[in-house]
Amino acid sequence: MKAEEHDWQAFVDLIERVLADEDLLPQVVAAVRSHVQESATLPVSDITGHTRVLLTAAARALAGRRAPTEAELTVVEQLAVTRARQGIPIDVVLGSVRISERAIWARARELSEAAGIPAERVLDARELYDDWADAVRARLIRAHREAPRQHDGWDRDAESMRRLLEGGSAAALAAAERGFTSGTGFWVLVTRPGDPASATALRRLTEGRSTEGGGRGLAAVVDDTLVAVVAGRPAFGSGGAGQVVGIAGPVVAEELGLAHRLAAATVPAAEVSGLSGPVHISAVAPAVALLSRTDLAAALTAHHRSGHAQLGPAAGAVARTVRAWLEADRDAASVARTLYVHENTVRNRVQRFSTVTGIDPHSTFGGITAWWLCHAWTVDAGA
Questions:
Q1: Does the pLDDT at position 382 exceed 60?
Q2: Is the bond leading into 250 cis (omega within 30 degrees of zero)?
Q3: What kind and span of H or E run contains 160?
Q4: In whole angstroms, what is the distance from residue 90 CA to residue 142 CA?
Q5: Which of 7, 155, 192, 285 maximizes the CB count within 10 A of its CB?
Q6: Is the dihedral of CA 163, 158, 84, 181 positive or negative?
Q7: 39 touches 96 (CB < 8 A)
Q8: 227: enclosing H helix or E strand
Q9: Mind listing the pLDDT tens digit for each residue in 123-152?
Q10: 140: closest CA among 74, 186, 219?
Q11: Does pLDDT of 322 surpass 90?
């Protein structure tokens, strides 16, 4: 059994080497374009991306000795939808897949024989692949049949971004389809749309002009935010972007969903912290942690409802003053100048807040609690 396991792992490693061959994919794409007339009009990058993602998914299935996952089949469906929208018949799609299969397996058999891998292991792998391919073809046919044929505003970039931000296998396959490779990991950047400087900075990043190693990326509008995923550490020029650009990373492709949530949470945290330009999640992690727990904020404000009532109409002014005082490192003189009040007014408001809430804002955790409560009060009041 150990020998069989060793032979299987050796074959899986061989398949990985085949897929990593820089010459193989262009040869496969050239063969598809040469033998399938309908494919000749498609961009090379389009065929390359879809070929790469199918080969990557197949390699993952062989390595795990399993059937295709739902994430992989979802990617297959998108391939079918893309080809249907391009007016490519399903028999042409399947023909292109068969050409790719023949090229891969011809190279694999050639190398496995030279590597001394037993023929029965190659046969086992081919049988497993055939089972995987049957499920993939069935999903291709069904999705192609059900796909609308007209162009109805479908955006390939937005669809790719959606899959990247799903994380897991879907993100890994989407990254492979777009040809994104990064030895330093992937980074996610989020900003509010509308600022030309931020949009320009993100566009330069996705074009590989401002990333470590020149790694390219993708940008799209997601839930009213401008999101970019780039391969390689982002580098902004002097001055960076005009408004906050939340950044998270580096992560592997499978963790892009988590990175997106962190980058998105960085934007409001940086704004309340008075920061601008590019801001990594690590710079505002405490603020992100506080602002993301609205349930705990609600519990905190509920617990101090009586204190808020005791402050009456002055609650808003007290909350703004205490928050400004904490954000100014407890410098009463600085806050007094900012709010156009006397220093004693600042000190009196801080003391009054402490009296009605029982919170000591001079202590470490008391300061954190006081800032959080005052932020919640000012947000509730619309200040």
A1: no
A2: yes
A3: helix 156-166
A4: 10
A5: 7
A6: negative
A7: yes
A8: strand 225-231
A9: 888 888 888 888 888 888 888 888 765 444
A10: 74
A11: yes
